[in-house]
Design a protein that fits this description.
The complex is a heterotrimer of chains A (259), B (382) and C (396). Chain A is of the alpha/beta class. Chain A is built from 6 helices and 15 strands. In chain A, 27% of the residues lie in helices and 29% in strands. The relative contact order of chain A is 0.17. The chains are: A alpha/beta (259), B alpha+beta (382), C alpha/beta (396). At the A-C interface, strand 3, helix 3, helix 4, strand 9 and strand 10 of A face helix 5, helix 6, strand 11, strand 13 and strand 14 of C.
């Protein structure tokens, strides 16, 4: 089974804070990490490989330093990593990103199953996975919480819904996006780390994947960010003082309507 | 302090640290409370290849030595000494095969140990044979092509969870210690069963159980090394394994220190964080100094042992005594720094203090270690 | 490309501080752009020296935008009813349609859904495009996507809105991709720009730390998924009239490669935190499952439910369905009590529309106090049980 996992390098959101004085993002000490959802997609791919044989390719689109997440992917069980990187990709929205990834996948091989994290924690759009499936004309299911079985050229999965789940069967090749419940990702192994250290990570440019200029980067993006601002604080707040008991009494006084 | 680790050693540290952070710390309090064996964490450790670090490369391992085990155990112990003990005990259980086993035995067992698909345990202690190992009563008698073992081993770490047991039994009771041999007993062998599971003060995520051999019959080729050399192998095994126990003390001491400093920076009394008070600072300074001194000794001892010197018992015992006494003291002090909170189960230091105690007791009590050191001194100055 | 005009740049560092991606640094008194630049443009806005410019390469050709008219809402139907978010979309859709002076339509695909048309019209739809076919009885990405795509190609609406639900977020991106349309996920605000009538879509970005307004200048339709529970639902007016247009979809578009074998409605999530009026939420400060026992008691006293921050869910103290925030649910209860939650914006975006927010935290500088109506500075292990006891006493 030839598997491909799409992986994004993102800033570790839990470290990111808004500086209350300057109202800007405090970036100090924010590390770049593998998008947590993608880690689960990778783990699922590696488990499928262990159960059914085949190879796992990790693909990332990003700046040159995104190579780090591909090495990490190899340490976690991927067989190889491929980076798609070009200044011309900068400013890509999800439309241009799914185009670029689809071109890159066409360039590097053919795959039975493509796995993506449900969404990336920096953008939280959850649009690239379905978009990529549409580009590649693959059947897909989003928010997969469990892969049940791979039989007769198809895969049976549980798709998380707002109120429960659906059991869905789709033929391969196909694309899945996964939620965190699907598995517990492993810690990179020692042998994997040694392999990752030595691995050759090819870098594909826009020209290498035969991308049309009008479809990539900012130029290829139908959406434009026109304004960026900080969420407003609540105006009418009241911070109580005194002992715990005094504060609780004041609160109860103010909350009478609810009690 | 920079201990000049190789890139490979750094990777071992990093991997074990990730296991501790991702897999052990989130569940350690629950495992402790439920007295539950951490099987799934061992699977994680296996998947990370850590079980292979002390197995030679030709058997699927990474070919590391005592120092590599020390590095891994220190990090695992920062997470939970119970889990780390399970790992250490598996290494201890297979050391006799590494040290004295024949090629067939190595081929048969080491690849599984390296892969972490099977775990080992070491069966030495009995009800009447603790510090005085010559009190062993388990016997092994050759009957045709089979050895027949009879006896009960007590407080065996990984008992009931491991699949491979190295058992010390007397093949010639008349010779006492000189009549002991080591046998490999496998889970499921006829006449081999498990007794009661112990309810312990600390390291509750490790399994401690009796091994019962009642006319336990095993094939003749399960004898490890020559008949009657069991005690020499036991001593060699313990020489190599003690720095591992010492490193559990280093990891535990470091973890307790980390908790104490973090708390002291947050806790405000008399209008300032308590780390600003000299009484606290001096405690923390002593704790940090002792942890570092222990680490330096353990690392030096492990590297010494990896150079395969003729005599390693003295440094091996020295680092075990020093690092585990340190761990006891530092964990007690950590509880003191945290005060009332330290005594509560909400904070991890009370567990650390309970876990520390066993380090002074198992794999040779610290009194026995001092005997070893004393005897060696006596010999050296002869 | 982001260009720096070295002549203009004064090396003040405002751009460096603003950049969420660490892509711009001041070196030797001049800003330098790195590879992680996403061209978000936030640095351009803060540059007082006007030294930064985004240059675009040859872009797509602008479509004939005037050919696209009307506001559409995707009516999501599941388990025998129209999803509540549909009525919220009709509420905001009505406002947008009136601003633009165009009709508002609902698209209702499903099987046996005919009876829902009246309610959609009462909630503001001028037209309901009904696709009632047994092939649509189960939700399947490809079929639903194909149906929407066909309808959009045929009727050419300028705006298509869908709920940011499991279904909406799954089906809409493929439709947008195939149509070459811009799509904004998980919007929390929608407006029409006076003048050119462009849809302005506002959503939390970068883990919710900043809000971003997004538009689709050259493509149609402008597509957005909208967070449930953020927009007010339309007040139904039973006297409203509207047209139902029944659309036949060619059979080849109704065949699917995906087979739904079973649909399981989860029993375990007895309480939907989006439906209750009082939520008591816990975060990292609860320190463990035992901390959650405390807030559970308080929630019981108040007849509410328990919610949590991502930190608490990640730590395994409580399950995911209780998570509030950027990667969890958006809630708007009457009363939200945040215990030991620092109030990072990722959490705030999920609960800031609550009517009253009470924050209990021992760090008086915690950002949660910025969005709280009432704040208690203290040890939650002391305050929460005390509050629960006093409420109990009061009820007697």
């Amino acid at each position: 089974m030839e598997l491909l996992v799409c992986i994004k390098q993102v800033p570790d959101a839990k470290d990111v804070r808004l500086d209350p004085r300057t109202n800007t993002l405090a970036r100090e000490g924010v590390e770049s990490i593998m998008n947590p959802f993608d880690r689960h997609a990778l783990e699922e791919a590696v488990r499928l490989k262990e159960a059914h044989g085949g190879t796992v390719t990790a693909l990332s689109m990003g700046p040159p330093q995104a190579e780090a997440v591909l090495r990490e992917a190899i340490a976690c069980g991927a067989d190889r990593g491929v980076l798609v990187s070009d200044r011309a990709f900068a400013g890509a929205d999800t439309w241009a990103t799914s185009y670029t990834l689809a071109r890159a996948i066409d360039t590097i091989g053919s795959f039975d199953l493509i796995l993506c994290g449900k969404q990336a924690i920096d953008g939280d759009t959850a649009q690239v996975g379905p978009g990529l499936a549409a580009r590649m004309n693959l059947p897909y299911v989003t928010c997969v919480q469990k892969t049940r079985d791979v039989v007769d050229g198809g895969i049976e999965v549980e798709r998380m819904m707002d109120d429960g789940y659906d059991v869905v069967r789709l033929p391969l090749p196909a694309l899945l996006t996964v939620v965190k419940d699907i598995n517990e990702p492993r810690v990179p192994s020692l042998k994997g780390k040694m392999k990752a250290r030595k691995a050759d990570i090819p870098v594909l440019s826009a020209a290498d994947i035969g991308a049309e200029e009008a479809c990539i980067g900012l130029a290829g993006s139908p959406t434009r960010v026109v304004n960026v601002f900080s969420p407003e604080p609540r105006g009418d707040r009241k911070i109580f003082t005194g002992t715990a008991e005094e504060q609780v009494d004041q609160l109860i006084e103010h909350l009478r309507d609810f009690l | 302090m920079d201990y000049f680790l190789t890139e490979e050693q750094e990777m071992i540290v990093e991997t074990a640290r990730e296991i501790a952070r991702e897999k052990i710390i989130p569940v350690r309090a629950e495992l402790d409370e439920k007295n539950e064996f951490a099987a799934s964490i061992l699977e994680d450790i296996a998947r990370a290849d850590l079980f292979g670090i002390f197995v030679p490369e030709e058997y699927g391992g990474l070919g590391g030595g005592c120092f590599e085990i020390v590095l891994a155990l220190e990090e695992l112990a920062k997470g939970c000494v119970g889990v780390a003990t399970t790992f250490a005990a598996s290494a201890l259980g297979i050391f006799p095969v590494l040290i004295a086993g024949n090629e067939e035995q190595k081929q048969k067992y080491l690849p599984d140990i390296a892969a972490g698909s099977r775990w080992a345990a070491f069966g030495l202690t009995e009800a009447n044979a603790g510090s005085d190992a010559s009190g062993i009563q388990t016997t092994a008698v050759l009957d045709g092509d089979e050895w027949v073992l009879n006896g009960t081993k007590q407080w065996i770490t990984n008992g009931g969870e491991a699949q491979i047991y190295t058992i010390v039994a007397l093949t010639d009771p008349s010779k006492g210690a000189r009549g002991a041999s080591i046998f490999i007993v496998e889970d499921g062998d006829p006449g081999f069963s498990y007794g009661k599971k112990e309810d312990k003060m600390g390291i509750r995520s490790s399994a401690t159980r009796e091994l019962i051999m009642q006319d336990c019959r095993i094939p003749r080729d399960r004898l490890v090394g020559r008949k009657g050399t069991g005690f020499i192998t036991v001593m060699k095994t313990l020489d190599v394994s003690r720095p591992g126990i010492a490193s559990l003390g280093v990891g535990l001491g470091q973890a307790a220190l980390d908790e104490a400093v973090t708390y002291a920076k947050q806790r405000v009394q008399f209008g300032k964080p308590i780390i600003g008070f000299q009484a606290i600072q001096h405690m923390l300074a002593d704790m940090a100094t002792q942890v570092e001194a222990a680490r330096a000794l353990v690392y030096a001892a492990a590297r010494h042992i990896d150079a395969h010197p003729k005599n390693m018992s003295k440094v091996s015992s020295m680092c075990k005594v020093f690092a585990t006494d340190m761990a006891m003291k530092v964990t007690v002090d950590a509880v003191q720094v945290l005060g009332g909170y330290g005594y509560m189960k909400e904070y991890p230091v009370e567990k650390m203090m309970r876990d520390a105690k066993i380090l002074q007791i198992y794999e040779g009590t610290n009194q026995i270690q001092r005997n070893v050191i004393g005897q060696e001194l006596n010999k050296e100055y002869a | 490309m982001l260009r720096v005009d070295a002549e203009q740049c004064i090396g003040c560092g405002a751009c460096e501080e603003q950049c969420a991606f660490g892509a711009i640094v001041v070196k030797d008194g001049c800003a330098v752009v790195g590879d992680s630049c996403t061209l978000c443009g936030s640095c351009v806005d803060v540059c007082e020296a006007e030294a930064l410019h985004i240059e675009e390469g040859p872009g797509r050709e602008a479509a004939d935008l005037s050919a696209w008219q009307g506001i559409w809402v995707f009516a999501e139907f599941r388990h025998g009813q129209v999803a509540p978010v549909t009525y919220e979309l009709l509420g905001v859709g009505r406002r947008l349609a009136d601003q633009r002076g165009v009709p508002l339509s609902a698209v209702l695909p499903g099987s046996g859904v005919r009876g829902e048309c009246d309610a959609l019209i009462a909630a503001g739809a001028d037209t309901v495009y009904l696709v009632d076919d047994p092939a649509l009885v189960q939700y399947r990405e490809d079929v639903y996507g194909r149906v929407l795509e066909e309808l959009i190609r045929c009727y050419q609406p300028e705006v298509v809105l869908a709920g940011a639900t499991a279904i909406g977020r799954s089906v809409i991106p493929q439709v947008a991709t195939r149509l070459g349309a811009g799509l904004t996920a998980d919007c929390t605000g929608l407006d029409i720009r006076p003048g050119d009538g462009t849809l302005l879509q506002t959503r939390p970005a970068f883990g919710g730390n900043i809000m971003a307004t997004i538009e689709c200048p050259d493509t149609r339709p402008q597509m957005a998924t909208v967070r449930p529970k953020v927009m007010a639902p339309a007040e139904p007016d039973p006297d409203r009239s509207g047209e139902v247009v029944e659309v036949e979809i060619a059979p080849e578009h109704l065949s699917s490669r995906v087979e739904v074998l079973e649909t399981v409605v989860s029993e375990s999530e007895q309480v939907n935190i989006q439906e209750v009026e009082v939520l008591v939420a816990g975060g990292r400060g609860l320190e463990g499952e035992k901390g959650f026992a405390l807030i559970r008691e308080l929630a019981e006293e108040l007849g509410g439910a328990v919610a949590a921050s991502r930190a608490a869910v990640d730590a395994g103290w409580i399950s995911y369905p209780h998570q509030v925030g950027q990667t969890g649910k958006t809630v708007c209860p009457k009363l939200y009590i945040a215990c030991g939650i620092s109030g990072a914006i990722q959490h705030a975006v999920g609960m800031q529309s609550a009517e009253v927010v009470v924050a209990i935290n021992r760090d008086e500088n915690a950002p949660i106090f910025n969005i709280a109506t009432y704040g208690l500075v203290g040890d939650l292990f002391e305050v929460v049980p005390l509050l629960a006891r006093k409420i109990q006493e009061m009820k007697k």
